[in-house]
Amino acid sequence: MDRPPCWFEAAADYQRRVLNQVELTGPWLGGRLAGRDLVSPDGQRISPERLRGLIFRQSIDGRRDRARARRQPKQQLVRVVVVDLAQYRANGGAAA
Question: How is the chain split into domains, by residue range?
Fold first, then answer.
């Protein structure tokens, strides 16, 4: 069976438009969209609701961490001075 040269393009177009299967590129290389789901290279599927929940959780964790950082008291430096008690009493003040 001889197929026209545009057959491969038509098959790819059918996959993209009808089946909604799109291969991803760039940082998403290896992943694809299949129907409503994002499919990882190893076959794990993530629904839009799950992805939305993961993003929401990440944003809430970031807000919580920023709030905790604001609530923690700022630590001030403490200067420690070691003084010989006998010398302090003998001089009537701080040791030289």
Answer: 7-85
Compute the C-alpha angle 83/86/89, nearest 5°: 90
Residue 93's pLDDT is 67
Cα dihedral 68, 74, 77, 80 sign: negative
Q: How far is CA 83 from CA 31, 53, 90, 95, in A?
A: 68, 60, 12, 6
How far is residue 49's CA from residue 92's CA, in Å, rounded to a whole number?
Answer: 75
pLDDT band at 95 (very low <50, low <70, confident <90, very high): very low
Residue 21's Cα: distance from chain center in Å? 26
Edge-first strand order for the sheet with 21-23 is: 21-23, 32-34, 37-39, 45-46
27: which DSSP letter? G
| Residue 1 CB-half CA count within 13 A | 2
Average pLDDT over residues 21-37: 82
Q: What six digits make up the tokens of 52?
A: 């939305």
